[in-house]
Recover the amino acids of this structure.
């Protein structure tokens, strides 16, 4: 008897079920902009990597405006990587900056570039600051997404920081010498 009662209840539910409409999730469809605001915790690893690649592409597009100096950063990053393989920390900015200062002083004293100081150094200072700022924005996005930046990009970042520091130290040193014009 109980068996037939349960069977009858299931049959009635089966007959009544089509009259109930499923609840809609939302009346408004999410736009792409809204989807970009989704907390990265809810993204899959693949989606995180895809978003980071988008930010990396924007970063590289921004570097086209300072391509001459960015190419120097890339060359110096290979040097950082080589030094790191021999035991030196790639983010030893003071060590690399001192070597850049020596390079810049050599250029200044040999008059290799006629407008090296102050115009050339100030131009380098602005471009290196821009590059470092762009790297920091990219690294913040990577942290927000919870992804690691690629190793070559880490060396590029270290090279950009030490290059910026080298230019700042060179300007400071030349101003202290007193034989250079203020910028």
């Amino acid at each position: 008897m109980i068996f037939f009662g349960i069977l009858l209840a299931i049959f009635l539910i089966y007959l009544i079920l089509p009259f109930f409409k499923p609840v809609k999730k939302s009346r408004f469809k999410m736009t792409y902009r809204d989807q970009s605001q989704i907390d990265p915790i809810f993204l899959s690893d693949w989606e995180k990597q895809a978003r980071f690649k988008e930010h990396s592409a924007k970063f590289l597009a921004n570097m086209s405006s300072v391509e001459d100096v960015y190419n120097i950063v890339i060359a110096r990053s290979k040097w950082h990587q080589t030094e790191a393989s021999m035991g030196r920390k790639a983010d030893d900015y003071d060590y690399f900056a001192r070597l850049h200062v020596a390079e810049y002083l050599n250029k200044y004293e040999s008059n290799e570039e006629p407008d090296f100081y102050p115009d050339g150094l100030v131009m380098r200072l602005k471009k290196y600051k821009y590059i470092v700022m762009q790297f920091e924005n990219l690294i913040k996005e990577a942290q927000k997404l919870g992804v690691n930046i690629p190793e070559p990009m880490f060396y590029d970042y270290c090279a950009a920081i030490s290059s910026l520091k080298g230019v700042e130290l060179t300007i400071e040193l030349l101003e202290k010498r007193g034989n250079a014009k203020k910028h």
Observations:
- The two ends are 100 Å apart (CA to CA).
- The chain has seven helices and no strands.
